[in-house]
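Deliverable D2.4 — example input (structure tokens):
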């Protein structure tokens, strides 16, 4: 599983003790040991864990200084995914300013990147544009801890459950905002630089703003611009990864990605999961045959086993308790099957629906007109339909699920009030549903093997 653990403590003894506790928690919960470790100064300790299928880039050092960097996720920088690219990104993160702005424009994918100077006094965490690769932090006993596993941080700190998060999970299947299931352990926001020193809450700075690229602001862009952006994103992926496999169904998003891949001059391998007589496998098979592609139809019970209780247990740990184990277990086994077949990257059409105004039905009147979206309407129609979660967890000291979810929707809309109603619908979709539900799936899959969604690269999003 691709995971990250970092400890920033005031002294070596504290740093070493917390690191050992974290490594023990990783062994107990996830059954893994670090593939590389690093230290900087007296108090910074970092461990990186490989994905179950796929090595990725280990902890790297600057060739001239003792600075270090670690990354998780299928990040791509100037069409590269290697140690040299990670060093360049880390140098830009630590230098900041115009240097970082320039390099960040060329940084894409689901990722969390940690960079630190050799003195170990400060660590800098950078999250991807959409916050899709979930990474968490907490302050405990005078130290700051960062990890991709909230459950590991809870084991180290003794954190209990967060009542609001429990109700959200029961009501919607996801945990929203910066909450995790564990009290005091927070998810890092999207497109954010977090500057961390021992025992203090991070200083946050946004490095990219999706709201600045709404269709109601700046120059109008058309279908051709979007298409060019997707082609560029896939060209970078083909350069950075040796053997990607593309999800192919009968859906619009996967067909668009396949067309963009063909436009690059590459002929990708494709996969569809499901019974051979279902619509998606039938359509995907016809498309692949017409184009002469290397295509496979993976069927549960034939190409991979029907999920068993042991798989549900794995998913519970893999998703830190936030995943629907029955829903994701088959996906886990299907992903592992293609990874075992030699494919080093899974590519899917996630985020494509944002290009199609997926939630514009929530807009009052024309999506182009300036009109306020009703947060409670979004809450009721997209997230919490009844009081089920409140009824089965009445003793929790937490707001009712609809109240908590409505507050999250209000936060997602706070900086775009007065903008076009369609843009508000886009952003509440991106900041709630996609950042947390789709982000959890991307995070789980990244722990198995690298995955990418070209529609969430910079150019298509903008």
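Example output (designed residues):
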């Amino acid at each position: 599983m691709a995971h990250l653990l970092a400890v920033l403590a005031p002294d070596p003894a504290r740093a070493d003790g917390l690191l050992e506790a974290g490594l023990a928690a990783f062994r107990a919960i996830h059954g893994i040991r670090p593939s590389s470790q690093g230290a900087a100064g007296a108090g910074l300790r970092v461990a990186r864990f490989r994905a179950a299928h796929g090595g990725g880039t280990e902890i790297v050092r600057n060739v001239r200084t003792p600075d270090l960097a670690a990354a998780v996720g299928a990040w791509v920088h100037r069409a590269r995914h290697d140690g040299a690219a990670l060093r360049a990104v880390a140098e830009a993160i630590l230098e900041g300013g115009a240097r970082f702005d320039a390099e960040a424009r060329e940084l894409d994918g689901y990722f969390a990147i940690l960079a630190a100077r050799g003195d170990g006094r400060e660590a800098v965490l950078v999250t991807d544009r959409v916050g899709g690769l979930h990474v968490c932090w907490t302050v405990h006993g005078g130290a700051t801890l960062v990890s991709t596993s909230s459950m590991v941080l809870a084991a180290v700190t003794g954190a209990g459950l967060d009542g609001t998060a429990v109700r959200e999970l029961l009501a919607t299947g996801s945990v929203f905002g910066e909450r995790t299931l564990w009290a005091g352990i927070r998810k890092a926001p999207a497109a954010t630089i977090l500057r961390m020193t021992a025992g203090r809450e991070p200083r946050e700075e946004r490095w990219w703003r999706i709201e600045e690229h709404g269709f109601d602001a700046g120059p109008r862009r058309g279908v051709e611009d979007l298409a060019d952006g997707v082609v560029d994103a896939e060209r970078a992926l083909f350069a950075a990864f040796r053997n990607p496999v593309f999800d192919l169904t009968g859906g619009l998003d996967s067909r668009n990605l396949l067309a963009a891949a063909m436009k690059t001059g590459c002929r990708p391998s494709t996969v569809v999961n499901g019974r051979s007589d279902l619509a998606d496998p039938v359509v995907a098979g016809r498309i692949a045959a017409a184009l002469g592609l290397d295509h496979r139809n993976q069927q549960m019970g034939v190409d991979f086993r029907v999920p068993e209780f042991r798989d549900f247990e794995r998913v519970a740990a893999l998703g830190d308790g936030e995943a629907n184990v029955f829903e994701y277990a088959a996906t886990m086994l299907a992903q592992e099957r293609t990874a075992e077949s030699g494919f080093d990257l899974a590519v899917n059409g996630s985020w494509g629906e944002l290009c199609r105004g997926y939630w514009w039905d929530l807009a009052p009147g024309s999506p182009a007109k300036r009109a306020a979206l009703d947060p409670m309407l979004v809450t009721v129609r997209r997230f919490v339909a009844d009081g089920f979660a409140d009824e089965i967890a009445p003793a929790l000291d937490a707001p009712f699920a609809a109240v908590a979810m409505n507050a999250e929707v209000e936060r997602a809309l706070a900086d775009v009030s007065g903008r076009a109603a369609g843009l508000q619908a886009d952003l509440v979709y991106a900041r709630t549903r996609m950042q947390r539900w789709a982000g959890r799936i991307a995070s789980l899959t990244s722990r198995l093997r690298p995955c990418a969604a070209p529609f969430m690269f910079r150019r298509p999003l903008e």
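The longest helix spans residues 421-448.
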